[in-house]
Specification:
This protein has 200 residues and is of the alpha+beta class.
Length: 200
């Protein structure tokens, strides 16, 4: 029986890359009042595509409103029932304009896991973990993932990075990888798309 670890996502590795992006975009958000920042990390494994999405609302009127609306007990945190309420608004904002497609496959989506944090300067950050289950990749096969950021005035430019797993490696990306501020991904502007192909 095949019990390779690569058949499962590596949340620690995924979270580590997301942390690098989060630190980068949180710094940018602190430097630009009222600017939202967003990053995405894709991990492709033998039987799944896992997505870690990080969204930061910089200190400003919108983050102040979010804290007032969802930090109901004023303890500087958004958790429990507060997080459930915030998920409805922030979830839609986090994903605004983003589309993920696994070519020629029909993934089964699981409910996303969301976490929130209020920063020392008043910024509000949210992280979502999304997992799409897929058919097992055969040796020598490829898996193609398209990431699109639709055009729209409210859609936020997004840094996107990708990674494989133990037996699944990046084969190519189109357009070719270009560095974002964190040094690990590319920047998608509204109206742009990115395609990554992984091979087992």
């Amino acid at each position: 029986m095949n019990t390779k670890r690569s058949a499962l996502p590596c949340p620690i590795r995924l979270a580590a890359v997301a942390l690098v992006l989060l630190l980068g975009i949180a710094t940018q958000a602190s430097a630009h009042d009222a600017a939202a920042q967003r990053s995405v990390v894709l991990q492709v494994s033998e039987d799944a595509v896992s997505i870690m999405l990080v969204y930061v609302e910089a200190p400003g009127p919108r983050s102040t409103l979010l804290r007032a609306r969802y930090d109901l007990n004023g303890d500087g945190r958004i958790e429990g029932e507060e997080a459930e309420l915030a998920s409805r608004e922030m979830g839609a904002r986090m994903l605004a304009g983003l589309q993920f497609e696994v070519a020629n496959e029909r993934p089964g989506a699981q409910p996303p896991e969301l976490r929130f944090q209020v920063g020392p300067k008043g910024e509000v950050s949210a992280a979502a973990f999304i997992r799409y289950t897929l058919a097992q990749m055969e040796p020598g096969s490829t898996r193609t993932v398209h990431v699109r950021l639709l055009a729209g005035p409210d859609n936020v430019a997004t840094e996107v990075a990708s990674m494989g797993s133990e037996d699944v490696k990046l084969h190519r990306s189109e357009p070719a990888r270009k560095r974002g501020p964190s040094g690990t991904g590319i920047i998608l502007q509204p109206g742009e798309h990115w395609t990554v192909v992984f091979e087992r």
